[in-house]
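SECTION: protein entry
WANTED: fold as tokens:
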Amino acid sequence: MSPPNETQNKTTPENENQPFHHFFSAAALTACGIQSKNQNTGRQPQYRIAYNVLANPEADDYEIFTMNPDGSGKKNISNRQGLEWTYYAYRDKILFISDRDTCRRCCYILYEMGIDGENVRKVSDICLADSWMSSRKNGAELIVTPHRSVDSAFYIINLQGKVLDKCNYSAWGLKYA
């Protein structure tokens, strides 16, 4: 199977019918909400679902796609061969980890982008584990898991990548999972 054409921004028939190649993220998928441009229209926010796809198993190429809640409008928003996994979305931002600036699958860096794949920005230089993340304080702070080679605590970071606090669960008698 060949990788999706980067200019197509959609799944290929081969990918779409292979359920084992679709890896959905977060609790019942990662959803992004966009407020309508005119807040006085009374319209509900529009949502998109972000999910991971093993686009090319031979190349170990994972892409991030979005779609409408009804399954229409599927679009590849990462368009980059390598590893791109989304684990969290908040409002109109998708947070994802990638090995694009590191060695393949040895360390993951946190990035954010808009729901259409625009404005990709590195959030932090911290080497992260392949792990779920969440936020607090209306998306201003994230809880992430550093790679085992970095630390055995969870980190609370801001959207500029600064470590604000460390949650050392070994102090509670818990083992690193």
